[in-house]
Amino acid sequence: MKTFLAPLVAALVLAGCVTVPDIDPAALPVTPVAFKEGDGRWITARPADNQPRGEWWKAFNDPVLDGLVARADVNNATITVAAARLAQSRAYLQSANADRWPQLGVGASASRAGGVASANGAGLPPGTLTTVGANLSYEIDLFGKLANAEKAASLDAQARAALLENTRLLVQADVAQVYFALRGLDEERALVRRTVTTYRDALSLTERRYRAGDVAELDVARAMTEVAATEAEAFAIDRRRAELEHALAVLVGEPASTFRLDEAPWSTALPVIPAGVPSTVLARRPDVAAAQRTVLASNARVGVAQAAWFPDISLTGAAGYASPEIGDIFKWSARAWGIGALLSLPIFDGGRREAGVNFASAERDASVAKYREQVLVAFKDVEDQLSALRYLADQSGAQERAVTSATRSTTLSDARYRNGYVSQLDLLLAQRSELANRRQSVQVRSAQYQATVGLVRALGGGWGES
């Protein structure tokens, strides 16, 4: 009995030597205490990556945007692919979990043999052996190989779930940013069209004055040039709008040939977002959470690879019936059974197990580096959008002052031109300046909306208290 138990006792002793290695803290990123671009207006929020992102786009109070995001959630191909990847990882987890349970199966066989020598040397006559039974096997996971494999699969599934949330967030943000860019172009297009109409009226007036001999032909040529150039700008805006509309069609999962977004007044609200501290961003962003779980999964696989150095221990059992006559197969006298234990330990494998540990360790080091990079990118994204919003707010104020001054300049130049105090060129320059500043004002407004969406994405979604 002592000899029989010796391998099991040795295995239990060795089991205490198997531990998953710790991750070097020095390889992980350092979390700053505050955003460089933050100020006293920013408050702390406390959501986490496994909490719902919330319908953050509804803060813009735009029903058209709400509908587009809803269509993208259902039809976007990228989200569908991410959901399929999550289903795959969950199936793999189910498979890894199944390896830790006893395996039970049933089977039947029939074989016929002859010519086998008996004890006295005479050949036995041909005979048939029929068997029916059940087989039971169970691998004893003394060294954590199966447990670590299941843990790694579970972490992979969690990472895939986070990546699905990240994909959904990215698609929602892309829809919102493209939508706001398109609405900005609608504003610009309406502005340029009104200016074309104004220029055409001015051209008609100049032509009448030319026919009356009040102005030179040069004034007519200048007016015609301004009309044509502004019309060309309108066509350029139309082209850009068509491209954005087609991009929006892809995001909502519809053919560009049938998708259409009509021009409408831009009355979207611009919410003020309270940003969280950096630790909140790390807990909130699903891509950072996915990278972190990938690190833990790769570390668990190092434990799986290390367990290959220790023996595999399996218990087996079989019970059923065996008979040379098929009619007697289920008689009590034909019953048969057997139990056993198997211990296997490779002695020489040419370095295969060592290579497996080295591969798993390198994979873990790579995932740690990717996690560090993802964290740094998260901070960069937030800082980018915070600085963008701050500078855009200052730019918007300055641009509004420029629009006011340009509008006043056009009014004065028009009055002076009609009274003959300035040339037509002075009036055209004033009108050009006003148009350029008004378009720039619209572009700044569009950029503010897009930067707000960018901050939502950088923060990992909704910003409400949990």
Automatic annotation (TrEMBL):
It is a lipid-anchor. It holds the Pfam family OEP. It comes from the Bacteria. Keywords: Lipoprotein, Membrane, Palmitate, Signal, Transmembrane, Transmembrane beta strand. InterPro entries: MdtP/NodT-like (IPR010131), OMP_efflux (IPR003423). Residues 1-20 form the signal peptide. Its main location: membrane. GO terms for cellular component: plasma membrane. It is found in: Cell membrane. GO terms for molecular function: efflux transmembrane transporter activity. Belongs to the outer membrane factor (OMF) (TC 1.B.17) family. PANTHER family: BLR4455 PROTEIN, OUTER MEMBRANE CATION EFFLUX PROTEIN. This is Outer membrane protein OprM. It comes from Usitatibacter palustris.
